[in-house]
Design a protein that fits this description.
alpha/beta; Metallo-beta-lactamase, Chain A; Rossmann fold; seven-stranded mixed β-sheet; about 35% helix; elongated; binds MU-OXO-diiron
Length: about 400
């Protein structure tokens, strides 16, 4: 029976042979995937040799192998290029190497150690490449570019010179199961921003180095390992320069928890005042929010406000969770502020300040409110909003 799987040609002799995980809803036991994700894998067919760039998540090996076999037979694959050792791209390597016995694994020196530890790849099937090394498949030249910490230490990109295709693995990715091309996806840059916030933002300086490194290449297509392929790469490259540089907007991300609507009401006062000052405000109820949406807004928010009630005199655990997330993702915000609602005592401000000190943003203010919102409290909140607004817009004026 013929295989139902096929390979999709994306350039002359270059095929998408990956898998779409439409129903997956969580990544790293942390990141929601409302649109599923894809594990893109690519086959590059030269005159003399054939290379597979990255593989797929365990469980999707059959999709990959059948798609590859629709182009080459078992003896026809010469190289498996492991741009990144994380299992969503490398998990199928053991089976691919078994099914294609001639294939050699190509990776960085750190990648080679990981291939041995994670996937038990024997030494004699690994070829280590260094930054700038090339393999000529016959009219298809693959150049390897080290790109450490994008997203693990072993990461590299592969550039196909003749076609101007950059295989960038996680870099330029987005968690989307649908859409082969960027221009087939609505709001593609918003999905990319969300992914940047979740995966790349903690490594902004590495991202800048990678952008500088690829700036001399003639990139006509970016083929990442998640989400659509960019056949119009200019906009995503421009956005990455902005996000990697930590360029923020006149925008405040308000992350709040509310148990009896008191904190929610305070947040409304703050948001109205900020908006009246012309500042963009995005509000996330942490108890209901999608963490990916929060990560997306942390990418370009100039200020973060955390508002929490106290639970047993401590910060609400969800407020600590969101604050820890901002620290972990290395949000580029310049300013932070806290709003604490308490009943009989609170250590919440100290706890949150302890987490936020690593965000390296200026603490503009801490407003503590004893349950009911008094006239004085309303004025304190409005005053905090005005102070934030002055600083946020002042920074824009300095930049001009
Ligand atoms: Fe998509 Fe870091 O793996």
């Amino acid at each position: 029976m013929p295989s139902p799987y096929r390979a999709f040609q994306i350039s002359d002799g270059v095929f998408w042979v990956g898998a779409r995980d439409v129903s997956r809803r969580l990544f790293d036991a942390l990141i929601p995937l409302p649109k599923g994700t894809s594990y893109n894998s690519y086959l590059v067919v030269g005159r003399d040799q054939v290379a597979l760039v990255d593989t797929v998540n365990p469980g999707f090996e059959n999709d990959l192998i059948e798609r590859v076999r629709s182009v080459v037979n078992s003896g026809g694959l010469n190289y498996v290029i492991m741009n990144h050792a994380e299992p969503d791209h490398a998990g199928a390597i053991p089976l691919v190497l078994k099914e294609f016995p001639k294939a050699e694994l190509i990776t960085t020196s750190i990648g080679a150690k990981m291939a041995r530890i994670f996937y038990c790849v024997p030494e004699d099937r690994i070829r280590i490449v260094k930054d700038g090394d090339v393999i000529d498949l016959g009219g298809k030249t693959l150049k390897f570019l080290e790109a450490p910490m994008l997203h693990w230490p072993e990461t590299m990109f592969t550039y196909l010179a003749e076609d101007g295709v950059l295989f960038s693995c996680d870099f330029f990715g987005s968690h989307l199961a649908q859409g082969l091309w960027d221009d087939e996806v609505e709001d593609v840059l918003l999905h990319a921003q969300r992914y940047f916030g979740e995966i790349i933002m903690p490594f902004r300086s590495n991202a800048l180095n990678a952008l500088k490194k690829i700036s001399s290449l003639n990139i006509r297509m970016i083929a990442p390992s998640h989400g659509p392929i960019y056949r119009n790469p200019e906009k995503i490259i421009k956005s990455y320069w902005r996000w990697a540089s930590g360029e923020t907007e006149e925008k405040v991300a308000v992350l709040y928890v509310s148990m009896w609507h008191h904190t929610e009401n305070v947040v409304k006062v703050l948001a109205d005042e900020l908006r009246s000052e012309g500042v963009n405000v995005v509000i996330h109820d942490i108890a209901a929010a999608d963490l990916g949406d929060i990560a997306k807004d942390l990418v370009d928010s100039r200020a973060i406000v955390v508002a929490t009630p106290t639970v047993i005199a401590n910060a609400h655990p969800l407020a600590l969770h969101a604050t820890y997330l901002a620290k972990l993702l290395k949000a580029p915000a310049n300013y932070v502020a806290l709003i604490i609602l308490y009943a009989w005592g609170s250590a919440a401000d100290k706890q949150l300040i302890e987490v936020l000190k690593d965000v390296k943003a200026e603490l503009v203010g801490v407003v503590k409110i004893n349950v009911a919102l008094s006239e004085k409290d309303v004025e304190s909140i409005k005053s905090l909003a005005r102070e934030l607004s002055t600083k946020i817009t002042g920074l824009s004026a300095v930049a001009e």
